Amino acid sequence: MRRFVHGAAEWGVARPRRSSRVAGVTMAGFRVGDLHTLRMVPHPAVTLLLDFGAGTSVVECAAGRRQRGSLVAGPGFGSGGTVRARGENVECVQVRLSPVIAQAVLGVSPAELDDAPVALDDLWGRDVPLIRERLSEAASWPERFALTEALITRRREYGPPVDPEVAWAWRRIVDRHGPLRVEGLADEVGWSRKRLWSRFRSQLGLAPKRAVKLVRFDEAAHRLVAGEPAAAVAAEAGYADQSHLHRDVMAFTGTTPAAVADETFLAVDDLAWAWPGAPGAAVG
Description:
By secondary structure, the chain is α+β, with helices and mostly antiparallel strands. The chain has helices at residues 99-106, 120-124, 127-137, 141-158, 164-175, 182-189, 193-204, 208-225, 230-236, 242-253, 257-260, 264-267, 269-272, and strands spanning 2-6, 9-14, 25-39, 46-51, 56-60, 66-68, 71-73, 84-97, 118-119. Strands 1, 2, 3, 4, 5, 6, 7, 8 and 9 form a 9-stranded antiparallel β-sheet that branches. Strand 5 and strand 6 (66-68) form a beta hairpin. The two termini are 26 Å apart.
């Protein structure tokens, strides 16, 4: 486990020694003695948080809604900058699931997750205490990652796949880092725009146009964290101009591009999620 320090944040961060055998899955482990209030930045993946430590993480949404412990959140969770996480003595395995495989793994479509986190107990019932116990008793992080991958592999095997056309459209958006026309996607898969919108939204949890914006934002946000000037990021990420980038960042995070560049949630990515193709490796 490696030490991550960013401002007041001091975390222990672990990652698997190899990428997952399951396409569209990445994992990281976190140990945090004092999780100061952390802004959740939207990401184009479904988040599965498996909490097993002595403490408990708390995710707070708008209007005071709170979710403790293990949870699931849909793609783009945290949009608007209204979601915060905190806790003490937190230990967890966080999994990023591509929306393409999320329905098979979770047992429900990401569309059913809406814009708020859902307690994992509500989806998996009495399996959750057993998962927590096994992760807690594991002797090492590699063992925890192996347990988590086995769990995901088993659940995915029996879950329903999404339409091949929907999966193809999603991967096309990810490969292009966002900028493309939804009408062009529909033509390429041989569907009407209305049918693509309907099937994509019901199976992946967001509309194609929203997916394009989210993937493009994710690319831009990581470029900002890497220190690239906002003007260059706007041009290379497919925005009309720097003002367009500013509006998009504000819509997703509630703050400016300059502030996003210093977000702890994004700063840890190079340590926790740095596999080939990152930051998009977990969303394909």
